[in-house]
Amino acid sequence: MRVLRSGDELSYAGFWPRLAAHLLDLAVLAPYLPVALWLSRESPRGFVASQVIGTVIAIVFEIYMVTRFGGSPGKLIMKLRVAKLDGGRVGYGQALLRYSVLGVTRFCRLLRFPRVRFICPTPISPPSHQRPGGSI
C-alpha cells in the first residue's frame, strides 16, 4: 500500500503498518459499533439495518475514499496509499472489484452463512482481498 518511487520500484507496507491502519480505522468506527450491536440484537430488521448501514460505511471507506484520497482514514494517517500495480491511482471500477471480495464476505454474514475465509499466500505478497482489480 505504501508506494514510494525509487527508480521504478514500488515499496509495499508490511504487516505492522497495515495492522496499525486497520486499528485506526476501527477507532474511527468505534462510535458506530455499540449502535450496530444494539440494532443487531433488537430484531431481525435491526440486524438487516445494521448490516446495510455497515455496508454503506464500508463502501465509503473502501471505494470512495480509496479512489478519492488513496485510502481509508487509517491508511491516510499511517501515510499508506492504495495504488495500481504501476503506482497510479485506483479508479472506481478497480476499487469496487477490490472491495467485492470483502463484500461477498459481508453478504455471507448477512445470510448467516458460516465464516468465509481467504488465504494470504505469503507475507511478501499482498493479501488476496487486496489484489482484485489490479490494485495493491
In short, what is this structure?
The protein is an all-alpha fold and 136 residues long. The protein contains 5 helices and no strands.
Instruction: Assess the beta-strand content as a share of residues.
Output: under 5%
Low-confidence stretches: 1-5, 113-125
Order of helices and strands: HHHHH
- State the domain count: 1
Rg over C-alpha atoms, rounded to the nearest angstrom: 16 Å
Supply the number of helical segments.
5
Distance between the termini: 6 Å
Number of strands: 0
Could you estimate the helical fraction of the residues in percent? 55-70%
| pLDDT averaged residue by residue | 78
Structural class: mainly alpha
For the largest beta-sheet, the strand count, sense and barrel status come to: none
The 3D shape can be described as globular
What can you tell me about this protein's structure?
Helices cover 56% and strands 0% of the residues. α2 runs antiparallel to α3 and α3 packs antiparallel against α5. The protein has one domain. It starts with 14 loop residues before the first helix and ends in a 26-residue tail after the last helix.
Question: Key features?
Answer:
single chain, 136 residues, mainly alpha, globular
Topology (elements, then pairings):
Blueprint: H1 15-29, H2 32-42, H3 44-69, H4 73-77, H5 92-110
Helix pairs in contact: 2-3, 3-5
